[in-house]
Amino acid sequence: MSNAAAIRPGRPALPEWVRRLPEYLMIWVPLLLSAAHLVSFSLWTIWISFTPSTLVPVTGWVGLRNYSAVAASRNWQIAFDNLLLFGSAFVLLSLVTGLALAILLDQRIRGENLLRSVFLYPLAVSFVVTGTVWSWLLNPGLGIQKLVHDLGWTSFKFDWLIDRDMAIWTIVIAAIWQSSGFAMALFLAGLRSVDTDIIKAAQIDGAGPFRIYRRIILPSLWPITITVVVIQLQFAISTFDLVRALTNGGPGIATQLPALVVYDLMFQRSLLGRGAAAAVLMLLILLAVLLPYAAWRYVQRRRAAHA
Amino acid sequence: MRERTFAPSRILIYLIVLLIAAAWLAPLAVVVLNSLRSNEEIAQGSMIGWPQHWAWSNYLAAWSGFCVAETCAGIRPYMLNSALVTIPATIFSTLLGAIAGYAVSLWRFRGDTWIYGIVTLGLFLPQQMRLLPWTIVLRDIGLINTLAGLVLIHTIQGLSFTTLFCRNYYVAIPHELIRAARIDGAGFFRIFWRIILPLSPPILIVTVIWQFTHIWNEFLYGVTFTSGQQQPVTAALIALSAAVADIPQHGVQSAAVIIAALPTLLIYLLGGKYFVRGLTAGAVK
């Protein structure tokens, strides 16, 4: 009989761990669910990618057969080439657009808040909506080309959406419209955090605005630039909804991207093993971007710690 | 003071900024105008034009009239689906993320950095790596093609974001505050309710806005794990454009697009500042 029970009859003392059970549950259950599903689901998908699974997951081992089948398929090859083109063009152009917008907004102009909202609002809208709207604007029979024709310039041609070679650029256009505001927001934060004393000192030394930007402000934006590149590349690699709504991979399979190939293999052709292999390939592409970034961050942190 | 207002370079800057802003607003303007034009009017001209007769009926048709497959209930049921998924998933993932963020940053327990590291992996892993396992798990627990299944997925997957947001915010709270409360005998939950939660509104607003926007706009899970009447509005919009491909109804479709985008646009208008904060959280650090 413990003292507590003697003092408060009718309420026996609970063992420590029982008393703290709700606390343990609240700490561990959500975190464990989140961590465990990430690890186990990833391993699960990797495992399926080595099995001969088609309609349902089955046990077995086929080595790299699914991978070679995916890599040899025209669908994947086009998707991979498209990803290289789309990824580099989108990242580069959204970087340039974002930086240009940030520099323009940094000139102490009136209505800055309103303009910033205008450049950012597409980010609040789903890719499905963005893709649908751009598919109308870029459709030669409905959108910009039709408008210009109706205005009298009938030789005007802007039919990238149905042009096999140019269709991928329509996705670049929509993606830039959607997400260069994000680059702008980050760059603007970076521009505002440049030490004003250094700028003033440069002004006293007679440096003009161009020189100040080129020599002082832009070099200080490197860390932000790398962050923006990595985040935008990550977005490019997983692009799915935008293409689904804008071109649905077409015309033909001209705008195919890895994320669409995965979905197609898994849920439309019921080739689970191959779909899983394609998903793992997507992960590998992503790691090719993220691992150098992680290494760079690590070196930066070490340097900051030693400084 | 230098005279700035009429300098040619200033005028050029304003001109460029306004032009880009117009280009950025144009798609929205086009959809809004189209949602008010009749299908005949659009068919005769292009998607870009001023309404001759204001066809407000498009909104009624989009909301509760048009047909996808055999059902003619507009996008109302799908909007309801999206709300029934987004609201609970946002609340659950935010609350659990706040507790988890508090636990890993202030309460501390054995293995906290490890488990936190694994949870944040969820920010980077492509969704495609988890599609098959989720399909199998949802089928086994009987939640495939249900809204509850989507709530479960968004809650668990959202924890990566919400835990990160809250943890980054809570690390700035002085540890002495927690230590003093612990000495006074306050437990895990009392400290959370009495100290952490009252300090949390700024980060909770960011997290709620971020999660709401994210979950509302999500498409891949919606289209993979649900079908027909159970789909969220993003998936229904794609189904709608496929359904009306034969007889184009761009006016009604535009109205549907506007209605579907309205909740997140409103949140963006009301909480723009917090939206940007959520956007840049973690990215600038």
Radius of gyration of chain A: 27 Å
Shape of chain A: globular
Overall pLDDT score of chain A: 90
The major beta sheet of chain A can be summarized as:
none
The greatest interface between two protein chains, and residues involved on each side, is: A-B, 86 and 80 residues
Query: How large a portion of the residues of chain B is in β-strands, by DSSP E?
Result: under 5%
Give the count of helical stretches of chain A.
15
Listing every helix as H and every strand as E from the N terminus to the C terminus, the arrangement of chain A reads: HHHHHHHHHHHHHHH
Largest sheet of chain B: none
User: Which percent bin holds the helix content of chain A?
Assistant: over 70%
Helix proportion of chain B: over 70%
Based on secondary structure, the structural category of chain A is mainly alpha
Gross morphology of chain B is globular
Number of strands of chain B: 0
Low-confidence stretches of chain B: none
Structural class of chain B: mainly alpha
What Rg of chain B, in angstroms, do the CA atoms define?
24 Å
Subcellular location (chain A): Cell membrane
Protein name (chain A): Glucose/mannose transport system permease protein
Membrane topology (chain A): Multi-pass membrane protein
InterPro entries (chain A): ABC_transporter_permease, MetI-like, MetI-like_sf
